[in-house]
Amino acid sequence: MAFLLNCPNCGQRNVYDFRFGGEVLTRPAPDASNEELTAYLYARENADGPQREWWNHSLGCRKWFVAVRDTHTNEVIETSWPPDILVSGHEASDGE
Amino acid sequence: MANSDAGDRLSPARRLSAGERLPPGEHEFIDRDVVIGFEFEGRQVAAHEGDTIGSALAAAGVDVLSRSFKYHRPRGLLCVAGNCPNCLMKVDGIPNVRTCTMAVRAGMTVGRQNAWPSVDHDAGAVLDRMDRLLPVGFYYKVFHRPKLLWKIMRPVVRRIAGLGSVDTSSDGGPTYTHRNMHTDVAVVGGGPAGMAAALAAAAAGLDVTLIDDQPVLGGHLLYDATRYTGINGTGDGTGQEIAETLRKRVAEQDGIQVLSGATAFGFYQGNLIAVHHGYEAVQLRAGQVVIATGAIEVPMQFENNDRPGVMLASGALRLARLYGVSPGKRAVVATTDDSGYSTALGLLDVGIAVEAVIDMREEPGASEAADAVRTRGVEVLAGHRVVSTSGTKRVSRVTVVAPDSSERNIKCDLVCMAGVRQPVTGLLLQQPGAVVEYDEQFGESVPAQLPGGVHVAGDITGFHDLGITLAQGAATGRQAAGIDPEGASQLDAIERDYRAGQQPPGAFTGRDGRSAKKEFICVCEDVSSKDIDVAVGEGFNDIQTLKRYTTATMGPCQGKMCHRAFVEAAARRTGQSIVATGRTTARPPAQGVPLGALAGPGHMPRKRTALDGLHRAAGAEMVELGPWLRAHNYGSPQEEALAVRERVGIIDVSTLGKLDVRGPDAGALLDRVYTHRFSNLREGRIRYGLLVGENGAIMDDGTVTRLAEDHFFVTTTTGNVDAIEDWFNWWLAGTGMEVFVTNVTSSYAAINVAGPRARATLVKLTDVDLSTDALGYMRSARGMVAGVPCIFLRIGFVGETGWELHFPSEYAEHMWRALMEAGAEFDIAPFGLEAQRILRLEKGHIIVSQDTDAVTDPLDAGMRWAVRFDKPDFIGRGGLVANRARPPEEKQKLVGFVMHDRFVPEDGQPVVEDGEPVGRVTSSRLSPTLKKGFGLAWVPEKHAYEGAEIFIRSGQTDSPAVVTMKPVYDPDGLRLRE
């Protein structure tokens, strides 16, 4: 694994500079069923192809961002700040 | 010569002859004026400067360099290019060194391996006659009945098989470094194609890095004395002269960096090339890559094709032309194309008799070289095949079969195998998108599809013609520079012409392609054509399973010598085409690389606190904790613990993670990530904070202090702060919450002052009112101590009245000294990590990851009080709710226990019930207060009550202990509130 990622803050860097944060998931509501909770905790799409995932520029600016990566080829299709991530209980503010 | 002379350059008067040498050649590597000595199995061998170990041993008349993997057959020089396994030896303690390319250094110690008592007289050679005991896949078949037999035989087999042994008593050998490099164009391979590509790309203004595994650029031209005329751009001359011309141009051209003696072993995404270069592993990131790794000659198939004296033609010519060493006296050249005639001429030119050229094609060669060979009176046997060799430790005779099936023996001591080539695609194929296909006309598998930014040039393409090679090199160099080559169509035309004039290559199998037990396909692993037949017959007809079962291509050369023959043998036996048979998968490393080079130097940073020097001066024993070094003790942890209980102690807690959390939404963020509530925490108050994952398992703990309405000071466990900082920021990302999380771990030093005389010590240094009325338990203040601005945290991890002082770390030593001086009248003592662990254990405080594991939740750990289910949501709430619903009989609880005596069970020992383990000890120590063993343990919920009796197993003994649900020291927490 030796691809490059474009940190929205710092620019293109070696993947070793980053920490992988897993698939972008939607957090279930507080009153979700056990099944929904289990799926959120343990079930992963594990797409063979483009996947939205979290990355942290851990050896750089330490910012979290979202990348769309083709898991088959490791091609990073795009990276962006997470303005529209659906985290339960939080709306994106105007500032973002 | 005495051993003490090892390493000295020999004075002319005492100069030994460096073996028998051929007349000097103009382009040879060796300097005949310099003689150096090295030790070979106890005797001194003389070599010239520029020799490899292999060439020097050949000059000294050593034919047998190793014993084969399985049958212990004698093996000698074969490729002389660092590809085959035959010359692996132990050099200066390092096993499996390829001695045919390892330069001689004065005084080095060299020995052969994998034989007993010696390679020349190897008892293991008897295995060669016992081959029926060792069929293909024998480790699945023989020595298994009775069952006990394999237990006996396995170590024997392991000892006999294999290569050199690692010297486990050594100090680990040389230290390797890692380096990152960046380049516009990386060219792998320093032959004519690679040099032409590098020159073209650099001429276009790009930065070029040229990687070559030989000591000198030139590739196969280094030993090619063929005269070339009409080559575009280099002038007429021998291959060696053209190589020199190109080498000069590379040296003079700006922008080319050459890594010689460097192996590119890995080719990863984003055009990252891993290079092993001396004691360095280079990670080279390239914009464009030109793969010009060439093609290497591979052995032909006939019985006893592995006997010393049977060499690749290129290997024989390397030995003669680069090192002036005669590969033999009477040669037979077997060839599948015209290159064998050039080999024959090359041998004749240095005075080696050539008995015959066996041209395996039906129509013999008609080239200039073929005519020259005939003119010089060498017999040419067209349409013949080599079927076997004879000899003991060196070939003495070769048997050939004529088209009419008559057989004939020819005496010789050298057999050169010419013309069978395998493009070196092992590196290229590691790159996704690169595809190699079998080319029927060439009989070779050549690149058919390339990923973007990757180019190929030279012999790897299957075109073995110097003019085409140079044209391809220049074209790819221009392509890499983004210049659309107008020469591309021209190149196509040249390539078409070459194909039109190309004779089909001769078959290189022995007698009608019939298999034989000692006709070796894979010399590394001793796999013969017969083995392939048997394995296919047993059902292993897929190339991937066939490889794994026979282990062909899996030895040190990683298929360099055998991949082509392996695939062709499999195709022949399965009746499939070569295309349908497919290939094995290419993976890194393309060439063996020392594990030390991959590991490199240690990358783990070692952090020391600002007080590190004072701890050492006080005689502290230091211990690693995460990335930090901490004072474990200053002599006696029990004494240190008593000092805290009875007087006053100080401990350096600077390694605690510290986060400054600020902003209007700071309280909301903390409410979200912690199980506790913090938005309602009053200014100047402290609350214990517990972080859990979404599954409810404990991640970390620490304290949260509200310094101001929008400002919190958070501590985390040592070594965990980066992960917690990421965790906070992750839950902030995309929410629009206005919070800044700043890691101030190293900015602040921290010292905990604790004990009944802590207040009396501190009041001497500060104006802050430390009375319980003003600054009670779990409260904070800010003020000066010894002239240094501090945050006071009145907390009680060790269970005594105490303050954790956080302050700018540049004042750490001053603060420590001031505290020691102020406390001197109370007999203050520094205490270390171990004393702190004893003290906290007496208070029943957990240490995350010591007393908890990946599934421990706060409810089972007895910290229900730290979880606010009345918050509508927080990270991990769902997981905790689900855990809460689990039936009690499934649960374990974390409880305290006290032994009946001073016995201290070890951490991790099982709690047993009716002889079965039902729980485990997580922490245990001797209590300085109770003078008894005690600790924390996970027990079934039914035992989690005050006074329950449990049993802890230690060895064969089950020792009774009593469960306590409260801290063993100051159970009601009165002392820390004083």
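qc> Residues 544 and 584 of chain B are 6 Å apart (CA to CA).
qc> done
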